[in-house]
TrEMBL record:
Keyword Transcription regulation appears in the UniProt entry: no
Protein name in the entry: Copine-domain-containing protein
Single Gene Ontology BP annotation: cellular response to calcium ion
Lineage of producing organism: Eukaryota, Fungi, Fungi incertae sedis, Mucoromycota, Mortierellomycotina
Domain VWFA per the UniProt entry, residue ranges: 291-509
Low complexity bias: start-end ranges: 557-579
Keywords: Repeat
Segments forming domain C2: 1-126
């Protein structure tokens, strides 16, 4: 029988700050061209008072620019009551390695979040410094902070330009793109989106794209927006200025003349669709569980478990790095699992004289589940007694096995989501097969977390992480990012090692979860904002709500009613209740139980 997952009590919301970053006068470290800057942002470990090894975020890389504005912003928690040291590291990117240490350092700027917020216009400029070349001019980084709104709305655009002639700054059929800028609270425009380049088209129609409202206008529909149409590797300056509210109130398509281009040269917003997709918490409240699957490395490189140098050695406290990682991640995910029974596998070990890359740690391949986190640990210690460490390190079998479990449970009335936790000490030996397995799994309700244990070189894991470039193989591209890799050693000396590890490895799961649900049209039982519902009646603006426009319920919403629906039951046996409140539409949910 289906059971509602137990969701931990909510904690007070921590304000979020969006940091926009630009650089001026950067040191030119390239010989035949200019530097290709990228900025990494780091926070400080509260216990060791040293900079965290992993950045809290990074911008995109910009080609051949010494003065640049990054499109990608960095979002951090803001804690007024705490000193929050923060470091901005700017590098010149020379290769495809995603690690900042693999690039040439331009310089660091160290400050505190409070100093940025307390600066005039919430904008702080700082001089970049190189640790060994302090006297050299490395350039300036400029940071602007703005509190991020809580809007969940998503805006989908379809944009075209017409008659981009060969005259003027477009001297030939233009390879064109556009950049959307948003005015800050200080009135200064910053880039928030850059389109792909359309090659050799006088009437380019760019691919449809979506933006969160917090990114577009930070929840303020009267915030000014500006669109620049540019020629690739050129500085086109054509800037229609408008607000999101103006688009909501106008008939689409809407034409904007591109000055100083000839008459008939226009930017056209063909379509704008306003949606309010459910959040991660909305889906959990709607009864979709998170299921944990664990896979543990049993290869020889871990060392003999009887020796203290082994990664599988059980120290006097009864722990090792494998068990600490299992506890920190498992204790969080088990809160969202309905039955708290987890399949647990080993890979790279020899069982009954046969090498296996996916064997059940409880010895039962037909029913590999164990009870709770303690059951995972008990099965792990027991498996070390009956299995022999062997090799090589192959990931694809456990990924394919978990994918099979996902497919097995997709036919029910309730969609389920899975998180595969892989703990390993070494370098993958079946990289091609693993890439293919991940690409296939990216179309399933699955996230993959890889925790590297020990001191091995884990550079190849960053390829699987695919934060910057999606995985491709055999003509296929991954449907969405589903992999997160974290080396355990980065958290061993942290004041809150277990909590910090769990936060790092689980940080991307909510977005990966929502991405899957959105792509596959899985809806949570929540209601959108009233102004979102009203947007469907304004001009040519489209709206794609969870409740179809024109339905009786939608009609009541138009009249200022609130809809109360069962958020947990897989099937509705009672009737939804409709009530009128003084504030119009609300997001509250109530459950009126009907009879079976």
């Amino acid at each position: 029988m289906y059971q509602q997952p137990v969701i931990p009590l909510a904690v007070p919301t921590v304000p979020k700050l969006e940091l926009k970053i630009k650089c001026k006068g950067l040191a030119d470290l390239d010989v035949l061209s200019k530097s290709d800057p990228q900025c990494f942002v780091f926070l400080m470990d509260p216990k060791t008072r040293t900079w965290c090894k992993e950045p809290i975020g990074k911008t995109e890389m910009i080609l051949n620019k010494l003065d640049c504005e990054f499109v990608k912003s960095i979002v951090i928690d803001y804690r007024f009551e705490s000193i929050q040291p923060i470091r901005f590291t700017v590098v010149d990117v020379d290769n495809n390695n995603p690690a900042w240490t693999a690039q040439e350092l331009i310089g660091h700027f160290d400050t505190e979040v409070g100093k940025i917020v307390g600066s005039r216009g919430r904008t702080l400029a700082g001089r970049l410094e190189h640790p060994t070349r302090r006297s050299s001019n490395r350039g300036t980084v400029i940071i602007t902070a703005e509190e991020q709104s809580q809007s969940k709305r998503l805006i989908k655009f379809n944009i075209e330009a017409t008659k981009l002639t060969k005259k003027g700054f477009f001297s030939s059929d233009p390879n064109s793109f556009f950049i959307i800028h948003r005015a800050g609270t200080n009135g200064v425009f910053s880039p928030i989106y850059q389109s792909p380049v359309i090659k050799s088209k006088s009437n380019p129609l760019w691919p449809e794209f979506s933006m969160k409202e917090i990114q577009l206008c930070n929840g303020d529909p009267d915030r000014q927006l500006k669109i620049e149409v540019k020629k690739f590797k050129d500085n086109g300056r054509v800037t229609p200025v408008f607000t999101f509210q103006e688009l909501l109130n106008t008939q689409l398509p809407q034409y904007f003349p591109l000055s100083p281009m000839p008459a008939g040269t226009n930017l056209m917003i063909r379509k704008m669709v306003v949606t309010e997709p459910p959040s991660f918490l909305d889906y959990l409240a709607g009864g979709i569980p998170l299921n944990l699957v664990v896979a543990i490395d049993f290869t020889q490189s871990n060392g003999d478990p009887r020796h203290p140098q082994s990664l599988h050695y059980r120290n006097p406290s009864g722990e090792n790095d494998y068990t600490r990682a299992i506890r920190s991640v498992g204790n969080i995910l088990q809160c969202y699992d309905t039955d708290k029974r987890f399949p647990v596998y080993g890979f790279g070990g020899k069982v009954n004289g046969q090498v296996s890359h996916c064997f059940a740690l409880n010895g039962n391949p037909q029913y590999p589940e164990v009870d709770g986190v303690d059951g995972i640990l008990a099965a792990y210690w027991h498996a070390l007694q009956f299995s022999e460490l062997w090799g090589p390190t192959n990931f694809s079998p456990v990924i394919n096995q978990t994918a099979a479990i996902c497919n097995q449970h997709r036919s029910g009335a309730i969609e389920e989501y899975y998180v595969l936790l892989i703990l390993t000490d070494g370098v993958i030996t079946d990289m091609d097969n693993t890439v293919n397995a991940i690409i296939s799994a990216s179309r399933l309700p699955l996230s993959i977390i890889i925790v590297g244990v020990g001191s091995a070189n884990f550079d190849n894991m960053n390829v699987l992480d695919a934060d910057d470039e999606p995985l491709r193989a055999n003509g296929k591209t991954m449907a969405r990012d589903i992999v997160q890799f974290v080396p355990f050693r980065d958290f061993q000396n942290s004041a809150f090692g277990g909590e910090a590890l769990a936060e790092a490895v689980l940080a991307e799961v909510p977005d990966q979860f929502v991405s899957y649900m959105t792509q596959h049209n899985v809806r949570a039982r929540t209601m959108p904002r009233a102004d979102t519902m009203q947007a469907m009646n304004n001009g040519g603006v489209s709206y794609a709500p969870s409740i179809p426009p024109g339905s009786p319920i939608a009609a009541h919403i138009q009249n200022g009613y609130s809809f109360h629906s069962p958020p947990h039951s897989p099937s509705l046996h009672g009737s939804p209740s409709i009530s009128r409140g003084p504030q119009g539409i609300t997001n509250r949910m109530s459950y009126q139980q009907g009879k079976n």
